[in-house]
Amino acid sequence: MQDSLFSQPRSPAQPVMEPVQGVSRVVDYIRRIVSQNKTLGGIRVRGEVSDLKNVNGRLYFDLKENADILRCVAWASDAARLPRFKDGDEIICGGEYGTFAPRSQYQLFVKTVELTGIGALYAQFEALRERFRTEGLFERERKRPMPAFPRRIALVSARGKGAEDFLTTIAKRAPFIEVQFVETRVQGEGAQIEIGEAIDKASRLDVDLIVLTRGGGSYEDLFPFNLEPVVRAIVRARRPVLSAVGHTGDVHLSDYVADYTCETPSNAAQYFGEIADRYLARIVRAHTQLERSLRSAVSNAAQRADSAAKELRHAARTLIPSRYAALHALERRLNSRAPHQRLAERAARLAQLRSNLLANARYYIAPSEQRLTRIRDGLQRAQANALNRHRDMLERLKMTLSGLDPQAPLERGYAIVTYEGRAVRDADAVPVGAHIEARVAHGKFLARVEGKSTDG
């Protein structure tokens, strides 16, 4: 570029001297070099956004790549048309290059911004979220209640650490739950379609609810769980859906529309373990209340029997002395009238009275003893019946609890086979020649696989 600033003529006789110019002329010269460079004007630049500021609608930020920084400015009229981005996003910027004279710095006056990588995915995520929110898919009223005591669930996931964590934890915390595994690909191009089809397949199974899960990963790997095929499949599922995708802090559109959400696969399994804990606590409370009621019923019956016996003994002790007192009074009156005839009559009468007294005594005492015996027998039968009913109920509860005991299958001759620390459920998971460990009811032993076959 020719410019009079540095093209002053010199006489051959003059000594060579560096030209001297004012600051403003030098700054303006540099500005024109930068702004009028056609090659530079056609270049868009890619970089990571840093130090983003919004000042009255104007955007100021840096584009970084390694240690290099390009200062960028978007005027308010241009910034209003740009897609939203934030610090850390990678973007491609286009515009005009120029300088900022007060600070002697060059910068890019941004006209266009193209999101790339996570930024583009995030923009897609925001658009889908707003669309589904407008349709009311996130509303609580649309969501289905979780079953209070699930017995069968469908696990939609890929085989990997996330599914293994879920299965291992639920086997420990809630072994009474039957898990049907619906395998699907969970990342990569087209994974969202396969996930949606797997959820539809799980909906057709005889299960109480569906668990959608996978382990953590990058934002891109987890993005299929934000896409429409997965969201629509969750909404149309015939059973409630629990979403447990990724790690703590990850949020996906599958979480927004699911009927219940857990942060990780292990947390989802812990949710079912807490259900088991609640029902076991209810059984324990019922058992305690049953024992307390039984003890109270037996104690009350015993007290009533003791009170009845006490009243009978008191009545017998009161009646007999009064009859003997009347007899003695009659004997005294007879003795006071001594003629032999009357004495004989009185003796006969006395004998009759004695006989009546004994008869009366048997009339009052014998029925009382029989009544006391009947009451005691009735109380004993009631106590035995109550004990038998509660004993039967306790036996049923004991059988129910023993059915949930993971040790019970081992006592019947079954074994738990593990390979490299994991339970073996599929013969294909263990190579021939591998060393396996078998745990039985009393102890464990090591073995080597000589051959295998897969059931049809």
What layout of secondary structure does this protein have?
Elements: H1 23-35, H2 38-41, E1 45-55, E2 58-65, E3 68-74, H3 76-79, E4 90-100, E5 105-115, H4 118-135, E6 152-157, H5 161-173, E7 178-183, H6 191-203, E8 209-214, H7 219-222, H8 228-236, E9 241-245, H9 253-257, E10 260-261, H10 265-336, H11 340-403, H12 407-411, E11 416-419, E12 422-423, E13 435-440, E14 443-448
Helix pairs in contact: 5-10, 6-8, 10-11
Report on this model:
By secondary structure, this protein is an alpha/beta fold. It has helices at residues 23-35, 38-41, 76-79, 118-135, 161-173, 191-203, 219-222, 228-236, 253-257, 265-336, 340-403, 407-411, and strands at 45-55, 58-65, 68-74, 90-100, 105-115, 152-157, 178-183, 209-214, 241-245, 260-261, 416-419, 422-423, 435-440, 443-448. A five-stranded mixed beta barrel has the order 1-2-3-5-4. Strands 7-6-8-9-10 form a five-stranded parallel beta sheet, with helices on both faces. A hairpin with a 2-residue loop joins strand 13 (435-440) and strand 14 (443-448). The longest helix has 72 residues, at 265-336. It is elongated, with a radius of gyration of 48 Å. The mean pLDDT is 82.
